[in-house]
Design goal:
two-stranded antiparallel sheet, alpha/beta, binds flavin mononucleotide, 2 domains, eight-stranded parallel beta barrel, TIM Barrel
């Protein structure tokens, strides 16, 4: 199938294995490449620049396109170093999220590095589009992680109409061929798929996390602001129910205080990410597992190849 995305990256199918904090790794992306799609990894999944470079060395050996996700807001105090490394390696594409992508686009353009910007509403899309990115990723209301608020059926056509010259990729709500076709029929040139890949054989997270994705449905997905201050989708485990899904009075007071809010946000974010990391890799009762409503498509732990097949080929179950 040929679309603006397959042509731009030289891939067989218009699918990106979406970047997922803690979850994405080189093994998953290599399996994605072999299955004819591409994949992206958050730079934040590597604790040091050395580890990040080792991963990039491994990925580039395969000569196929891969992406790196950069969080471009203030919570990411390592952005400068991560961007520098991406530029040195001339990574094929970068996905920016949660902030202003201007600096990234400006530095990548002369090197031919493609930049795709996550957008979750029209106001933000207008800002990002004015910087002429290579694509916009429409993070819709069904997406996992920091989801959007607008359903794909409205958001994708609105973006296509507003920015006819920019390819639009849809993120959220895809887990099989019909759901991918639906996004393409709305005018998207590709889809970015995260949650369905959490419970894959190649995924590094704990068996408990994978099985939670198998066992829960979209009815069990709730939004919490506890982790980062921004709404994020998680499985409604007994621990999530116990701690609640909204910031307590002290957290919201600090987040609104003019002088303290910058530091409060960083601290809340760091604490939330530590909670996620603990739950992702070890058996603990403090289970905060990030996943979106597309857990509905996860029926067992499968290899990446099978998850891809279900999306790109009609009738595969
Ligand atoms: C566990 C998890 C972690 C995520 N981490 C990130 C991240 O670090 N950076 C980012 O830009 N998006 C992140 N996302 C959002 C995905 O990149 C993508 O937009 C989303 O998964 C698409 O929706 P889907 O889960 O229904 O496929 C995450 C999503 C999930 C489920």
């Amino acid at each position: 199938m040929e679309t603006a995305l397959t042509r731009m990256l030289g891939i067989e199918h218009p699918v990106i294995m979406a970047p997922m904090f803690l979850v994405s790794n080189t093994r998953m992306v290599l399996a994605a490449m072999n299955a004819g799609i591409t994949g992206a990894i958050p730079a934040l999944n590597y604790r040091t620049d050395q580890e990040f470079r080792a991963a990039l060395d491994e990925l580039r050996k395969h000569g196929k396109p891969y992406g790196i996700n950069l969080i471009v807001n203030r919570s990411n105090y390592r952005l400068k170093e991560q961007l520098q490394t991406c530029l040195e390696y001339k990574v094929p594409f970068i996905i920016t999220s949660l902030g202003h992508p201007g600096k990234v686009i400006e530095s990548c353009r002369p090197l031919g590095i493609r930049v795709f910007c996550d957008v979750s509403d029209m106001a933000y899309a207008h800002k990002a589009a004015s910087l002429h990115p290579d694509a916009l990723i429409a993070v819709n209301s069904e997406a996992g992680g920091h989801c959007g608020t607008i359903p794909a059926t409205e958001f994708v056509p609105a973006l296509v109409q507003a920015f006819p010259e920019i390819p639009i990729i849809s993120a959220g709500g895809v887990g099989d061929h019909a759901s991918m076709q639906k996004m393409l029929s709305l005018g998207a040139c590709g889809v970015s798929v995260g949650t369905p890949f959490i419970a894959t054989e190649e995924s590094p997270v704990s068996m408990e996390y994978k099985m939670a994705c198998v066992e829960h449905s979209s009815m069990d997905i709730v939004l919490t602001t506890k982790l980062s201050g921004v709404p994020c989708t998680v499985i409604n485990t007994p621990y999530v129910q116990k701690i609640g899904t909204r910031q307590n009075w002290l957290e919201s007071l600090l987040s609104k205080n003019r002088t303290l809010k910058k530091w409060a946000k960083i601290l809340i974010y760091k604490r939330g990410m530590n909670k996620l990391a603990k739950a992702a890799f070890s058996a603990t009762y403090q289970n905060v597992w990030c996943a979106g409503p597309t857990v509905d498509y996860i029926d067992k732990i499968r290899p990446v190849k099978e998850v891809v097949e279900r999306i790109v080929r009609p009738g595969v179950r």
